[in-house]
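Now for one specimen:
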Amino acid sequence: MITTENLTVSYEDDCLALEDVSVHIEGPAIVGLLGPNGAGKSTFIKAILNLITYSGKIYIDGKENSADKGQIAYVEQKSQIDYNFPMTVKECVSLGTYAKLGLFHRPSKAEWRKVFEVMKQVGLSEFADRPIKALSGGQFQRMLIARCLVQEADYIFLDEPFVGIDSISETIITNLLRDLKKSGKTILIVHHDLSKARSYFDHLLMINKNLVAYGKVEDIFTEENLRATYGDNIFLGKES
């Protein structure tokens, strides 16, 4: 479980990104993190990962700010990743093993077997030796999730994984996430498409610098909470 108490983050010039966010996330679960641009969604994840300075407290499985090595896997927004980095697909997926091996150890045959197993899971076996820049947007996202699977982390954080992907990749990814939940994992996903919230997630965390609501989708995905999160001019699309 992940617990935050009065989590507050300020950036330069005292720009407040998050204020007094207290929430208790129990797993296994697939949790959608919703809010408008600038609401602090990515900031919330980065604080839990201890990538930024914050005030307040964060507990992971009851221990304050002390995730075990490799306990959390994180995929940032694709726009933050260099597609032209000279690396093959299998090499990128194998990076997931380094969380436990350490940077100066090479994957063994057992780790490579795992790499090829998860590439098969995400439908990328035939792309193993291709450069990562040869992948489509959806294939690229599947590769990054495969890297998480190799890591075998208890918690998986994904920052907008469904942006710019094809329907095949969407189906593969959603099925993988459901299987991960069944195996006991907790997945936290920054998301922006409200029309898919009911089909993707079983829990929602809604924030706009402050916590608006957290709970089961059927309980908190309401017009009242959406207006409190996004404002009165929100457009509510239909499920597709």
Observations:
- Residues 167-182 form the longest helix (16 residues).
- The two ends are 32 Å apart (CA to CA).
- The CA atoms of residues 135 and 178 lie 24 Å apart.
